[in-house]
Amino acid sequence: MASSSDSWLWELNEASRLANDISAMISERGSLPPSGPDIQHHTSSIRRKITILGTRLDSLESLLSKLPSKQPISDKELHKCQDMLSNLRSKAKTDGF
Question: What superkingdom does the record give (predicted)?
Answer without folding.
Answer: Eukaryota
